[in-house]
Amino acid sequence: MKKVISILCCVVFLSGCWDERLNKNIAIVPMIGFDGELGSLTGYFGIPGKQQNMSNFNLLMAEGQSVEEVRQKIDTQVNEGVDLSKLGSILISDQLAEKDLYSLLDLYYRNARNRLNAMLIITEGSAEPFIQYGQKISVEVNDYYPMLLEGFTLKSVVPHTDLQLACSILLDEGIDLVLPYLKISSENDVPELVGLALFDSGNFTGEILNIDESIILNVMRDDLNKYAYITYMEEKIPLTISIKKVKRKMHWDGETIGLDYQLKVSIMEYYKNNFKDKNTRLKLEKSLEEKITSQMESNIKILLDANSDALGLGRIARAFHPKLFQEGKWNEIYPTLTITPTVQVKITDTGILD
């Protein structure tokens, strides 16, 4: 009798996977893109591989008033339904991103099956050619854009920003979002990174930092990754440095903010050696300080003109200078600030030649 009861209990508690979803019954979508505006959206869903009787990469397109309506219309184009649990990248046209980015992402935060580490990307013009590019790369299409951005993240060009992190930034008045900005190369017709798109309160400002400016921004944010290479011309000689360590201090005096940086760098390329001479090294450090300071000042001007608090100064103001922050008014206060950077450079490594 005890054995019978035990078996019945096992039947009850081991009834199988109630939420099982077989791949043969769904269409996995690794990348999607959107154009238009809310109320008149166009969505592009890239479906690769041999699924839903499709032998090659397929680009499905639908129009709708909202992201969910577009998804439902895409559902009617496949045997079962699209599945976003393996979604790796969401591409949004620059024009669409100009008005309330969060309204396009709300759907993905409400479904427990959705993948929150999908990458967000802003595209120059329509997102369609970026999704269509999957037809040329077929097998690697699932991870193409995440892997492309991972390389630039390691090089300290693009900060890691997925759906989950983007949500916390978009809902925080004390910091503004920056996202990778891609365009289709005119030379070889492939997607390439232009730099970082700047946002103001969840709206794309139209301002873009180039590659070098993006690296300097991450230095200013003290958000270095494995590498951070920058090349300058030093007396008509190419000089490439690798920024190894950043130490940042802030000084607040009302609406005047001083940003003090101490950088440790190594020399990657500079054929005019003689680093054993102390004066030569000091002269080069001074020159680098001037060049990096100039780049930081240029970045600050771009950020203030775009009213984009990509440095997250609002978070610091809210914590330590609440009177200056004034909840709900930081967006008006931020562009009036005076921000002055100072840089100290220490060359710690010149390679085995010296």
Would you write up a description of this structure?
This protein has 354 residues and is α/β, with parallel strands linked by helices. It has 2 domains: 187 residues, no CATH class; 143 residues, GMP Synthetase, Chain A, domain 3 (2-Layer Sandwich), CATH 3.30.300. It has 12 helices and 14 strands. The strands form 3 sheets. An 8-stranded mixed sheet has the order 4-3-2-6-7-8-9-10. The chain has a 4-stranded mixed sheet with strand order 11-12-13-14. Helix 3 packs across helix 7 and helix 8 crosses helix 9. The longest helix is centred in the last third of the chain and has 29 residues. The chain is globular, with a radius of gyration of 25 Å.
Helix content range: 25-40%
Number of helices: 12
Provide the domain count.
2
Classify the beta-strand content into a percent band: 25-35%
Gyration radius (Cα, Å) is 25 Å
Secondary-structure element sequence? HEEEEHEEHEHHHHEEEHEEEHHHHE
Largest sheet: 8 strands, mixed
Could you name the key traits of this structure?
single chain, 354 residues, alpha/beta, GMP Synthetase, Chain A, domain 3, 2 domains, four-stranded mixed sheet, 12 helices
